[in-house]
Each structure stands twice: as structure tokens, then as C-alpha cells.
Amino acid sequence: MVCCMIQADMAILSVQSQLVDGALGNAAAGFILARLGHEVWPLPSILLSHNPALGKAGGGPIDAGLLMSVIEGLATRGRFAQCSLVISGYLGDAACVAIVLDAVARAKAANPNCWFLCDPVMGDHGRAYVGATLIDAFRARLVPQADIVTPNPFELGVLTGGVARDRREAFAALESLGRRCAVVTGFSGADTPRAKLDILMVAEGQRFRVEVTRHEAAISGAGDAFAAFFAASLLYHQGHMPFGAAASMALWFAAAACDALIGATVASSREQLAILESQAVWGADLNFVAAQQCR
What we know:
The protein is α/β, with parallel strands linked by helices and 295 residues long. 40% of the residues lie in helices and 23% in strands. It is built from nine helices and twelve strands. The strands form two sheets. Strands 3-2-1-4-5-8-9-10-11-12 form a ten-stranded mixed beta sheet, sandwiched between helices. Strands 6-7 form a two-stranded antiparallel sheet. Strand 6 (123-124) and strand 7 form a beta hairpin. Helix 1 packs parallel to helix 7 (222-237) and helix 2 packs parallel to helix 3.
């Protein structure tokens, strides 16, 4: 597979957090998408000095009126006809939900082939870090409108109302979301090997699984990076093959690229994703782990 995925005539609108120092949200996804050949329109839902997990951060949410004016400015110029994908990540404030949905509606009206990828960033490791209003909005408004969803195991449980104990239950939970493509990252069930994590995907009725290396260190931003890797590869392949096949190729690439990125981060002992340092690996051809199609 060639990892030069240049799609210069189309763009990705990415609505996520933005850090001045660090690699979360658009600070991670924006670089990855651009490095892999996509024009990116980064729209910050919140602007922070650094990752709050490292200590109290300065900054805060971007005014909803300002964000809407940006969307309207893009629409006035007719730019949504060139939008191939809208990504939503960490929103932080329920006021962003209407802005994301407005952008998705405009993009799909101007380009019926545009997709909406919703990374329902709500929490991790058994803890929610957004409020109940935003969680309800993910369940009732954002995920039902998404073509693609990429929750972690905690978020999948929040969306479906139960904790998946093994791969079978996780696949069933993904299918219950009713989306064209649903992926759960970092899953560890009763049948997952001890030194591995599963990435499970349901795409147009097919089930796929990839095992990746389990790292004990907590890596902030890995989900943001995975969604970006997956989106870049899916957009590249969807013009050449059916959606299910393109999604499986995207799963292979995202799993291998994320594994390389996290491995480089752990080896560097950095507090942030080692995106710049590892780009020579994930920005080049990788040895892909074949996705196992499950029945």
C-alpha cells in the first residue's frame, strides 16, 4: 500500500480541541491528515495551553457564535462542495453540537458523497470528562447522524448502556449503533490475549478485528490519532473499491500507524504523542497487520 494519499481537491473539516503545546485533538489530527495528503479545515471547539491531564490549563471553549460565523463564511464562499468529510472530536460544550450538525448538513447538501465521522469523546477508563447534557447529545443527536463512529470501550458502553465482556458482545454493541461503520479502539475482553488489545470494526454488515500491542502507559490523544489515520486511508481507498473493502484497508492502516506512533511515544518517554518524531514510520509504507474478518 502506498501511503501518499494526496486528495488536494477536497478538504476535511475537523471540529476538535486545539492545544498550543501538545498533541491532542486538531493538534494531532490536523498534522496527521495534512501529512497524509489531505487539506484540513481545523475548527477549534476549545483552545487550551496544554493537555489538562498534565496540570491546570489556560484557555477555554470558543464562543459558539464565532464558530457558527466561520461555518457561514465557508458556506458563503461555496466551499462545502469541496468537503469530503466532517470529523467531530472533543467538543467540551453542548453548544458545539448544533454547530457540528449544521456543518454536516451544509456539507452533505453541497456534496452528497461527504461523510460524517463522529469520535464521541466523552471519557475513558470508567470516567466521563464531559457533562451529562453533552453525553445525551452524543446519544440522541450526533451518533444517529454519523456515517462512522469511533468510540473507545468506555464510550461504547455509554452509548449502548452496557459493558461488553468479550468480542462477541463488543461486536453486538457496535452493530446496535446502526451506523455504516463503527469501530471500537483499545478493547480488552475475556478473549483478548493478555499482551494485546483489539480494534473491532463493523462495516456494512461485516465484522473485522485487528490485534495491536498493549502498552501499559496511558497515552493521551491516541484516539484522535486513530480517527485521523482511519479517515485519511478511508478517503483514499473509497474511490477505488466498495466501502466495506475500503474500511478494512483503513482499519489495517490506522492500526499499524497508531501502533507505530504509540510505540515511538513509549520509547521516547515523552508526555505527548511523538507525532513529529515518528512520521518517517507512519508516513511511509508499513507492515500491515491483516484484519481478520469475523463471523
